[in-house]
Every structure is written in structure tokens, then in C-alpha cells.
Amino acid sequence: MSDVRSRIAAALAEALREIGVAEGVDPVVEPSARPEFGDFSTPAAMASAKVLRRSTRDIAQQLSDRLTAANVEAVSAWSVSGGFVNAHLDAATWGREVIDAAVAMPGIERVTMPEGHAVFPGKTLVEHTATNPNKAAHVGHLRNACIGDTVARVLRRTGHTVEVENYIDDTGVQVADVAVGIRDLGLTPLDGEPFDQFCSRVYVEVSRRYEHDPALQQQRAAVLHDIEAGKTDTASFVKDIARRVVACHLATMARFDIRYDLLTWESDIIALGFWRQAFDLLRDSGAIAHADSGQHAGCWVLPPESDPHDLDSDAAKVLVKSDGVATYTAKDIAYQLWKFGMLGRDFQYTRWDPGDPSSPMTTSAEGDSADVHFGGAQRVVNVIDARQAYPQRVVTTALRRLGHEAAADNSIHLAYEVVALTPAAAAVLGVPLEAGREMYALSGRRGIEVRADDLLDRAVQRLSEKARDADSARDVAAGAVRYYLLRFSLNQIIAFDFDEALRVTGDTGVYLQNAHARASGILRKVSDDGIAYTVPSSLERVERALLHRIDGYTWALAETARALAPSVLTAYAFSLASALSDFYEHTSPIVREADAEVRRFRRALVAATRATLGDALRTLGMAAPDRV
User: Fold this and answer.
1) Residue 180's closest CA among 212, 219, 218, 214?
2) Is residue 53 part of a domain?
3) Residue 325's closest CA among 360, 276, 292?
4) Pairing with 536, which of 159, 182, 390, 557 sits 20 to 30 Å away (CA)?
């Protein structure tokens, strides 16, 4: 891609050195906030004034003179305004560079990143989704999956080596509750009821019965005991439930084009002794200690960082309870060690669907798969909601106590806030409303949830009236839902509303996909006459703005990859689609343009926009339709 911005930054860095500012001032270059002052601007003069103790105006002029002498390619002139140094681009040179690079953008190979944006060395392992296999996936789980899937796509697009995993907790309390409901209470599915939705209903019913008959929880305890023991009829029964639910989850996520490299089963972690290995490492290193008294008596505890000898405080984390059962966090530590290749043992692997080579691999405690390897990452990104911040810190602390400082530093909890319901959405689901309450929490135990499949079905139904065909409706609907869940920053709680999620105008996935279809339609109507286009020396405001948005794509990708923040890319894609709309509305229709040179240039500009927007949509996991 074109990268005049990096060339300007490199020339600026050299100019700063020449005037005596070797350190302390970054060569920051940004698109100008005032286009009339230039195309790119830098505030470096203002920062340098504090270092050199000289007039900002004098420094700005000095920088401008040196930058002029540097003869940066595609820059026609420099100017100074209010302490900023501004670059004015040569439209013919820069415009052709931007358009040609966009149209020639590679479809599979990495997109070349701007200078200074490095690719993280080695493998990045991204774990996401991790929906408990006791219920249908709801919109909260879908937010997790969309975030993780998009992060993986962005990292791959920017040249990173990525492995994507989905952790299946098939030994926990929730799946045990479903087993109690099916096996002990005799609950059965309704005619035609999908298995995951049946299990959701069982989970709600069992939770209700626990409240009225607490003794029933003894059956849950018995199920958990049998699961821990392994190779029992109960363990096999529970594993079968989990596998059937996971099959439903995979089908749900596939509707949103979300896929995985590996499914990691907690039961295999237990069966293969991963936690025992991790426990021995932690015990022998002194990272954990046995509490002989106090509130944690009989437990193995990871002491708080503030006091390695304090085993009795609330800040101490129990990893093995007094009955010998490892906690969730203990298993997470073992899993994290395996992810970094530090456990000294591995799973066996099989294909989830042996007849489908595109289906994910899955862990196994049995078999022989010596030629298949996963894990051994240099960086691990765990996409888990913000409520799990403390357990994730415990995992990192355990790595540090074992001396794995680099692994601890490269253990990233990609935290996001939860999805809640607006009063309108809660009312649709039959939740009793309370005066003054603005949000209602999702609860699988109480059956308060928006199932991912149901949400997509609603979106398809709403969009079918205007869609070209059923396939188009599904593609646009899935993109609309994905975009809605991605455009919020990770630290924002999504107050879910059906109307807002399925809106088709404004900052929505439908708007972006319509923009791509509009660009495709223009290219169909305006044929390429085979004569090379030329970029006018003087551009219309909307033409220059659109070129700038195209030119900023690799910067948006690079920033998304650096911050692991999909909302950066959604904001960019919306700004590009908006710039296309502005161009379309403020220039004469290309198909009726009488000036052949203007028509060729504008057709090339639309082709570059279509290529860039299409790449952004696909990187976001959305379809890029030519027609809708």
C-alpha cells in the first residue's frame, strides 16, 4: 500500500536530529484536522520548543525548510500554521500511488504495514468463545467469539502467525447440572427442539428445583465426583452431552463465519495429568504452599504478591481445595503453561469431523498423533470478559512465580464488558420491568438471554424483504450482527436492543455492505475502456477526502493489531463508507460524466475504494456483497 505518511515521518525524524532534537520528541505525523492547511501535519515543533527553549514558530519554520530540502516523494510543498508543520501532497503522484496500491492489494498474503509497526515474533495463540457446553450460545457468548475471531483475522492479515482455540469446560458444575436434569430428573426434549436449546431449558429447570429442594445438589456433587474420577458411565454420559452441545455451538458460530483451529477439552487436561504436572512445578518451586490453619486450612494456596507468606488472607488464591479438588483457576494455570509449551507434555489430537478436513482439530487423551502439534506460543491472548480479571491475574502471577517472566508479560487478558438488555429488549423476553432500571443482566440460569441463533434469524427475517435472495439476506444479516457487537469499544457494556442491533442506516454493518455493493454497481455500469487513468492535479474536496481514507487503511489495520481492538477497524470502515457516500452525493454520476479523463479517474477511485472496503469487511468477518 501507499505509505507517504511513513516517508514524511522518516524525513521529520531526520530533520529533528539535524536541529538538535535527538531524543524526547516523537516524529508524530497525522492527517490534518484542517484540510485547507495541508494533507498531513505534525506538532513536533511545539514539543521541540520545550526541549530547545526556542520559539515554536522559529522551530516550525526551520523544520519546514529542512523537510523541503529532503524532497519527500509525493510532497509538493510544506507550510507552517500555528506551530504545526504541514505537508501538501502532489495529487497526481500521491493519488496514483494510493489507487494502484489499493487495487493491487494482496488477497491472501500479509498486508504491508507502515514503518514502525512490527509483527510480533513467533506464534500468537488466541483463545476465545469458551461457552460452557450446557446451553445454547447467547449474544454475550457471541460478542466474545466475534472479538476473538476478528482479532485473529486482523493479526493474520498483518502477517502474524496465529492459532485459534476454543476451550470446552466439560467437567464443570453447569454441565453436571444438565446431566442431573436429563439422567436423574428425566427431562426430555420437545419435538424438534435443538439439543442445545433443550439443555438451556434443562439448566433453568434444574436451577429452579435446587432452590426448592437443596438436597438435589448432592446428585450434582456425585456427578462431579464421577467426572473427576474419569472413565465412568457418568463421565461418558456427561461427555456425550457436552459433545452434542458443542456441535450445536460450532454450527451457530459457523453461521457468523467463526471457526477454530483446536477445541481443547478440560476433561483431557485432567485425564492427561496436566494439572498434576503444573502442581508439582508450583509446589517444588515454592510458588504455592499448604495452609495448615485459618480459613484456607487443608488447601494449597497461591499467596498474594504483597506477602508470599500470607496464606490466610482473602487475597490468597486457593488452587486445590481441602477435598483435593482443583479449582477452575488451577486448571487455567496448567492450560496457560501448556499454551506456552512449558508443561513438558502434550495432548493427542483428532479431527472433530473426520470427513471434513476444514473442521477443527480436537484434543484427546488417547491415540497417537505425533505429527500434529499445537500450543508452544510466544504470546497468548485470552478473550474473557472483564469479570474474570482477578483469576487471569492469578494465572499471570503463577507464571512469574515459576520464573517465566516473558510468558507472564506476553499473557494478555483481552477483557471486554458484558452484554446486558435494555428495558425494551427485556420486555420482548418477558422479563418483569422495574421503574428507573436501565439495564437487565443476561442469566442462563434464569433463562434471560438472547440466543445467537434467534438473533440471526430475526435479522434475516427483517432484511429478507429488501434482499436480492435468501443467501444475500443471510450474509448481510450475519454481518449486521457482527458489526453491532464489534463497533463498541471493549470497555463498553453493550445495552442490547433488538431495533438498534438490526438497524440498517447510520453506523451499521448494513450501511457498510450497501456501500460495497454501491461501489460494485458503479463499476458494472461504467466499463473500463482500457485507457490508463490520470489523476487531476487539482482534486475535488470529496475526492481528496476519499483518497485519504483509502490511504489510511494499513494504519487502521496496524493500530487494530497493536491494540487488539476491533472497534478501531469498524470505525475506519465506517469512515471509508461515509467518504464514499459523500463522494457519490457531491459529484456528478460517473456513468453520465462527459469528460473521459474525469470518468476514468473516478472509476479508478471507486475501484480502489471497493477493494479497500472489501478487504476491511472480510477482515472484520463480514461478507462483501457485490449486490444486496
Assistant:
1) 219
2) yes
3) 276
4) 557
* Judgement on whether residues 77 and 129 belong to the same structural domain of the protein: no
> How many folded domains does the chain comprise?
4
CATH number of 240's domain:
3.40.50.620
Asked whether residue 298 is domain-assigned, the answer is: no
Q: Are strands 419-421 and 494-496 parallel, antiparallel or unpaired?
A: parallel
- Residue entry with cell 480502489: 608
pLDDT at 210: 94
Residues 212 and 358 in one domain: yes
The 10s digit of each residue's pLDDT in 12-33 is 999 999 999 878 899 999 999 8
**Among 40, 70, 89, where does a domain finish?**
89
**What residue type is assigned to position 264 of the chain?**
T
pLDDT recorded at residue 516: 97
Q: 434 lies in which domain range? A: 423-501
Q: Is 134 found in the same domain as 258?
A: yes
Angle ∠(62,64,68) on CA atoms, nearest 5: 120
- Could you give the C-alpha distances from 592 to 38, 66, 387, 603, 610, in angstroms and in order? 32, 46, 57, 12, 20
Angle 56-58-59 from CA coordinates, rounded to 5°: 65
**What is the predicted pLDDT for the residue at 397?**
94
Same domain, 128 and 231: yes
| Calpha distance 486→490 (Å, rounded) | 8
User: Which residue in the block uniquely carries the three cell numbers 469487511?
Assistant: 617
Q: Both 212 and 354 in a single domain?
A: yes
The DSSP result for 19-58, as a single string, is: TT--SS-----EE-SSGGG-SEEE-HHHHHHHHHTS-HHH
DSSP-derived letter for residue 312 is S
Largest CA distance in the chain: 89
pLDDT at position 1 is 54
Enumerate residues 6+ apart whose C-beta is below 8 A from 442: 138, 139, 140, 418, 419, 420, 421, 448, 449, 450
Instruction: Could you list the beta-strand ranges (E) of 238-316.
Output: 262-265, 289-290, 300-302
Indicate the pairing of strand 40-42 with strand 84-89.
antiparallel
In this structure, is residue 437 part of a structural domain? Answer: yes
CA angle 89, 586, 2 (to 5 degrees): 30
One-character DSSP codes across 176-199: HHHHIIIIIS---PPTT--HHHHH
Q: Quote the crossing angle between the two packed helices 452-464 and 233-254, to the nearest 10°.
A: 20
Alpha carbon distance 89, 32 (integer Å): 12
**CATH code of the domain containing 33:** 3.30.1360.70
* Residue 623 grid cell: 461478507
Instruction: Name the nearest CA neighbour of 463 among 512, 471, 399, 256.
Output: 471
pLDDT at 153: 98
Give domain status of residue 408, yes or no.
no
Q: Please report the DSSP string for 124-139 in residue order.
A: EEEE-----TTS--BH
Question: Both 367 and 468 in a single domain?
Answer: no
**196 plus 76 within the same structural domain:** no
Neighbouring residues of 95: CB distance < 8 A, sequence distance ≥ 6:
535, 539, 547
Residues 148 and 268 in one domain: yes
Helix, strand and coil content of the chain, in percent to the nearest 5, comes to: 50, 10, 35
DSSP 437-458: ---EE-BTTTTB--BHHHHHHH
Is beta strand 123-127 parallel, antiparallel or unpaired with respect to 40-42?
Answer: unpaired
Q: Which segments in the chain show pLDDT lower than 70?
A: 1-2, 370
Strand-pairing partners, residue 77, are 88
